Amino acid sequence: MSTERAEDLARKLSDLVAEARLDTSFLDGSTQHIYHNGAGGQSVPTRRVENWNLDAKRPILGSGSFGTVRLERCQQSSSRMRAVKEIKKHDQQLRVMDYSRELEAIVQFSRPQYSHCFVQSHGWFENDSSIFIAMEYHQWGDLSRHLYSPLPEDEVRQIISQVVEGIVYMHEKGFIHRDLKPSNIMVISNGPYWSVKIADFGISKQRFLQESLNTVGVGTIGYAAPEQIGLNSNDVAMNDDNSKPGFPADMWSIGVLSMRLFTGQVPFKDLTNLSQYLSSSQEARALKLESPLKQKGASKISQRFIIDLLQVEPDNRMGAYQASLHEWLAKVGEVSDDAPNDGSNDLSL
Q1: Is 245 among the domain residues?
Q2: 3-class secondary structure for the chain?
Q3: What are the Protein kinase domain coordinates in residue numbering (predicted)?
Q4: Do 227 and 272 sit in the same domain of this protein?
Q5: pLDDT band for position 302 (50/70/90)?
Q6: Are 248 and 225 in contact (CB under 8 A)?
């Protein structure tokens, strides 16, 4: 992309972010938005008022170091519901965080052409301490609530193909998700015919990276790529600016997600387990991934798909577009030729 074109896109995104800001007042017990319809010709300007209250039965959908996600109902139409994510403006050291890039991602992928891939935002608002993102609400919740046991290969493929499609769009526009995992994938309809959307794309990821680095030794590393937690192929901490995670980090996360769906477990339990993988030979790494997949009856092309994503060196991993064209994803809806024989109700606004 040329510099001139990139600057033009940045200006357009900044305009979109400004337009998505909601005219908001914080009242006693509710949040009020005023929507203005400008005059056209001889028509008189009008305005529409909406008041939103916490849902009485389930006010909080989730919480974390970033803040909370709450469920709200519209006073004017109680059947209308939304999820509102609160993001603190300051980190634990009281440093002001710049969320302009994250807001650009949210606004960019809330456009109609991306509605099948991403949870849609209905605008944002703020007070002195927090930014609030108003989003569509889906009653099925996130994918982590549905993973009671390993999934059949066709269902794994359905989910992964939809996630890959969304990541193709993000990477084409220059955005990195940085936190792909089941809790950031919303379920629109569940199996055997899955429909999912990517959520939480971009917001607050960089801010809490250092906190993750400080605690990863005693916790689980989950879906983070080695470069996201400060490791390279030689198990050496990386601190220079050139080592910041890029697009390949998302592809690693998709590989881990694929393993989780197939086997019921993430492939790397802790930092020690990941370090052993990083320092192993290529053959040993492939065997570590293939063995549990074979036990679950995964096809050979699905095993190859995952191995190509979980390459240690970021530059050696499949890119998003390449993954979208992979032979395995092309078989969505088909019974795999080489597989062993033994083998929604949407409440969005």
Answers
A1: yes
A2: CCHHHHHHHHHHHHHHHHHCECEEEEECCEEEEEEEECCCCCCCCEEEEEEEEECCCCCEEEEECCEEEEEEEECCCCCCEEEEEEEECECCCCCECCCHHHHHHHHHCCCHHHCCCECCEEEEEECCCEEEEEECCCCCCEHHHHCCCCCCHHHHHHHHHHHHHHHHHHHHCCCCCCCCCHHHEEEEECCCCCEEEECCCCCCCCCCHHHHHHHCCCCCCCCCCHHHHCCCCCCCCCCCHHHCCCHHHHHHHHHHHHHHHHHCCCCCCCHHHHHHHHHCCHHHHHHHHHHHHHHCCCCHHHHHHHHHHCCCCHHHCCCHHHHHCCCCHHHCCCCCCCCCCCCCCCCCC
A3: 55-329
A4: yes
A5: very high
A6: yes
Give pLDDT, residue 335: 52
Q: How confident is the model at residue 166 (pLDDT cuts 50, 70, 90)?
A: very high
Report which of residues 40 and 204 the model is more confident about. 40
Q: What is the pLDDT of residues 25-54, one digit of tens each?
A: 999 889 999 998 765 555 667 889 999 999
Highest mean pLDDT pick, 206-215, 224-233, 315-324: 315-324
**Token pair 């996130």 in the structure block, residue:** 142
Domain co-membership, 112 together with 158 = no
Band of pLDDT at residue 329, cut at 50, 70 and 90: very high
pLDDT at 132: 93
Range(s) of the domain holding residue 298: 143-331
Q: Examine the domain organization and report whether 97 and 155 are in the same domain.
A: no
Report yes or no on 272 lying in a domain.
Answer: yes
Separation CA 65–CA 141 (nearest Å):
20
Q: Is 115 exposed, middle or buried (0-12, 13-18, 19+ CB in 10 A)?
A: middle
Q: What is the reported pLDDT for 2?
A: 59
